[in-house]
């Protein structure tokens, strides 16, 4: 069900979700994932948000199966305005498919919304189960070595016009990572709808590459390729802003399936604004 854009009636997190597409533009990361989707027969978009990538895929002629999964009712409600995919409201850990997809994606740094090891391994395990033996899981997160959060606290408000034509502004405050690597991010929206700024908060986790690899292995996945940008540049642990991972299922004996087993997603080809809430 679509949640109406009625700012006086909304909490901060719902407002933030309903403004996601309004504040975002199609970018290199979207195209990176779209190219993968167009080369796959069956696609699971984990943390699909408003469904931007699957909607574009259908518009560009993708004829296979498309499923979008997201736990946020405000985000998924916007996706459900389109019949471009099967839309399922649930967290990644609740994905119940068994060997049905040759590609799973998790774009827009949505992986960073998995805030601890238990949630991450449960989510990765569910994705692994949903993949065919030859399938691939492609996702991105931010490289903690670059410390991007230190650039997120606003020096000046970001000003824009909301979907109703009302002037609005937002400022952000970001903290330092806690013991789990989670950065708290607060956004404060101001407009004539409210007497005081409306606050939206979230946490974003920054797992180190080596820790990420251990979590993948625990879920039955292995790193096939890793990139440092959506142009296909190699990952530089000290300098790459993005940590883009292509993971494949391990076989039941802990080894990767032989080449050619199951469906593939095609070669990885060489989302959104730099606003951390709209990555």
Notes on the protein architecture:
By secondary structure, this protein is α/β, with parallel strands linked by helices. It contains 6 helices and 11 strands. It has helices at 12-18, 28-38, 52-59, 73-79, 117-130, 209-218, and strands at residues 42-46, 65-70, 86-89, 101-106, 131-142, 158-161, 167-174, 182-190, 198-205, 221-227, 242-249. The protein has a 7-stranded mixed sheet with strand order 3-2-1-4-5-11-10, with helices on both faces. A 4-stranded antiparallel sheet has the order 6-7-8-9.
Q: Quick one: CATH superfamily of the domain at 24-145 and 206-249?
A: Vaccinia Virus protein VP39
Could you name the CATH topology of the domain at 24-145 and 206-249? Rossmann fold
Number of helices: 6
Helix content: 10-25%
Q: Examine the secondary-structure arrangement and name the CATH architecture of the domain at 24-145 and 206-249.
A: 3-Layer(aba) Sandwich
**Oligomeric state of the chains in view:** single chain
CATH class of the domain at 24-145 and 206-249: Alpha Beta
* Helix and strand composition category: alpha/beta
Q: Report the sheet-strand fraction.
A: 25-35%
| Bulk shape | globular
Major beta sheet, strand line-up:
3-2-1-4-5-11-10
Intertermini distance: 24 Å
Largest sheet: 7 strands, mixed
Whole-angstrom Rg:
19 Å
Total number of β-strand segments?
A: 11
Q: Spans of 5+ residues with little confidence (pLDDT < 50)?
A: 252-279
Task: Return the string of H and E elements.
Answer: HHEHEHEEHEEEEEHEE
**Residue-averaged pLDDT, rounded?**
90
């Amino acid at each position: 069900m679509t949640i109406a854009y009625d700012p006086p009636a909304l909490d901060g997190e719902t407002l933030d979700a309903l403004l996601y597409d309004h504040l975002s533009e199609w970018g290199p990361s979207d195209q990176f994932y779209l190219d993968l989707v167009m080369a796959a027969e069956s696609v699971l978009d984990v943390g699909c948000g408003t469904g931007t990538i699957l909607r574009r895929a259908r518009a560009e002629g993708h004829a296979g199966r498309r499923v979008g999964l997201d736990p946020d009712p405000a985000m998924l409600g916007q996706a459900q305005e389109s019949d471009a995919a099967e839309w399922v409201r649930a967290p990644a850990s609740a994905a119940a498919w068994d060997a049905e997809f040759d590609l799973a994606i998790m774009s827009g740094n949505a992986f960073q919304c998995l805030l601890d090891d238990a949630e991450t391994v449960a989510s990765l395990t569910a994705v692994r189960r949903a993949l065919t033996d030859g399938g691939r899981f492609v996702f991105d997160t931010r490289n903690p070595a670059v410390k991007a959060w230190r650039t997120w606290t606003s020096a000046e408000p970001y000003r824009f016009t909301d979907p109703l034509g009302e002037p609005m502004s937002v400022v952000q405050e970001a903290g330092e990572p806690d013991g789990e690597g989670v950065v708290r991010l607060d956004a404060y929206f101001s407009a004539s709808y409210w007497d005081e700024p409306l606050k939206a908060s979230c946490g974003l986790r920054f797992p180190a590459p080596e820790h990420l690899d251990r979590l993948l292995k625990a879920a039955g996945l292995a790193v096939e390729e890793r990139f440092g940008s959506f142009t296909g540049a190699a990952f530089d642990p000290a300098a790459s802003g993005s940590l883009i991972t292509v993971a494949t299922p391990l076989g039941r004996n802990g080894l990767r399936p032989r080449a050619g087993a199951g469906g593939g997603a095609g070669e990885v080809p060489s989302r959104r604004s730099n606003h951390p809430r709209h990555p």
